[in-house]
Amino acid sequence: MEPLYRTIIKKAWGQIKTHKWLWLFGLFTALLGNGGEIDILFQNNKLTDAPIFLNNLKENFAALDLNAIKDGIFNALATAPMITILSVALILIFTLLLIWLITVSQGALIASASKLDEDKKINFKEALNKGIEKFWSILGLNIATRFILYFTLIILSIPFAMLYMFNSSNTAITFITILAFFILIPIAIILSFVLKYAFAYVVIKNQSAVSAFILAWRLFLANWLISIEMAIILFLINFVVGILLVIAIVVLALPFLGLMILMILVQNAVGLNVSLGLGLLITLVLLLFTGSGLAAFQYSAWTILFQKLLAGKNFPKLIRLTAGKEKNINK
Questions:
Q1: 249 contacts 286 by C-beta, under 8 angstroms
Q2: What residue spans of 118-134 are helical by DSSP H?
Q3: 79: DSSP letter
Q4: Is the sign of the CA dihedral 199, 203, 205, 207 positive or negative?
Q5: What is the pLDDT of residues 50-69, one digit of tens each?
């Protein structure tokens, strides 16, 4: 049996190494997070703090003064109506533009990885146009999956609220919290897998959002172990890159730290601010550079896996290892 993940990782790395413009699309998709499915464990661990969350929620509601908020809005509109309206409009436009860029970038990365995996040519403009073409379908899938996840979260939060309202014991609240955690996490991870395959069905196979989600669900059920193994491998790559990034930041920070100490000793405030600013700027650039590369790499890897799953029968690493051991035993 030929190696599956090794081939995918090699191809994905080759794509982003050869086609640097993929990193630009990766820059925007990185805003969604590069931790993948494992990252969901950390994003949703706030469920375990349900008692604290409910207590804070109650205190916030008690301190909330709706009349003050209403008066503040009316005062802002009365004193500076144009500035207020313009500020709100700019925030709204920026938010919508960011959503558009992220969604289009997702489609562009998938389209690019698909073409490059088939040894076909594609350029930045073609990838961008494909992302724009599939914008609404990808956005619809993003919204639908998040709706399912948050709806599940709301349903699971009802027992917390009821127990808290009736001042139940911490033991009961903790039990329900743990139970809800183990229900929500698998749902979130499964949705993440299905969403990846649904995106690919939309972009590569030109399916509608609904049919893509159904086909993606079936593909995941048929290849759930491969999906989990792939997620673990990508997480480990993320982890190693993260460690290297921390080391690089520390090494780069040392000269700036020394320069800042020197500026403090000579009491040069301007030099201190410049040193701090340059250090932060270099760190930010390094973070954005690494994040964009990782995002582009992961989209390429998942797209290549998707095409391999559709092309023929692939076996999880665990099964291939077992088959290899059985062969050695039978010899």
A1: yes
A2: 124-133
A3: H
A4: positive
A5: 444 445 545 554 555 556 66
CA quadruple 241, 243, 249, 255: dihedral sign: negative
Q: Using an 8 Å Cβ cutoff, are 6 and 308 in contact?
A: no
CA distance linking residue 257 with residue 36, whole number of Å: 34
Structure tokens at 277: 């600013």
Does the pTM exceed 0.85? no
Token digits of residue 179: 């139970």
pLDDT given for residue 54 in this prediction = 47
Q: How confident is the model at residue 319 (pLDDT cuts 50, 70, 90)?
A: low
Name the region of 219 (left: φ>0; alpha: ψ -120 to 50; beta: rest): alpha
Q: How many C-beta neighbours within 10 Å does residue 138 have? A: 25
Q: Residue 288 in contact with residue 23, Cβ under 8 Å?
A: no
Alpha helices in 166-208 (DSSP H): 170-204
What tokens does 327 get? 């062969």
Number of H helices, E strands in the chain: 13, 0
Instruction: Give the burial class of 92: count Cβ atoms within 10 A of its Cβ; 0-12 exposed, 13-18 middle, 19 or more buried.
Output: exposed
Under the banding of pLDDT at 50, 70 and 90, the label for residue 253 is confident
DSSP letter string, 250-316: HHHHHHHHHHHHHHHHTT-HHHHHHHHHHHHHHHHHHHHHHHHHHHHHHHHHHHHHHHHHHHS----
Q: Is the pLDDT of residue 206 over 70?
A: yes
SS3 state of residue 36:
helix
Q: What is the DSSP letter of 44?
A: T
How big is the CA angle at 105 (ends 237 and 136), to the nearest 5 degrees?
130
Distance from the first to the final alpha carbon of the chain: 17
Look at residue 168 and tell me whether its pLDDT is greater than 60: no
**Amino acid identity, residue 243?**
I
For residue 264, the model assigns a pLDDT of 87
Burial 283-315 (b: 16+ CB within 10 A, else e): beeeeeebbbbbbbbbbbbbbbbbebbeeeebb
CA angle 139, 115, 132 (to 5 degrees): 30
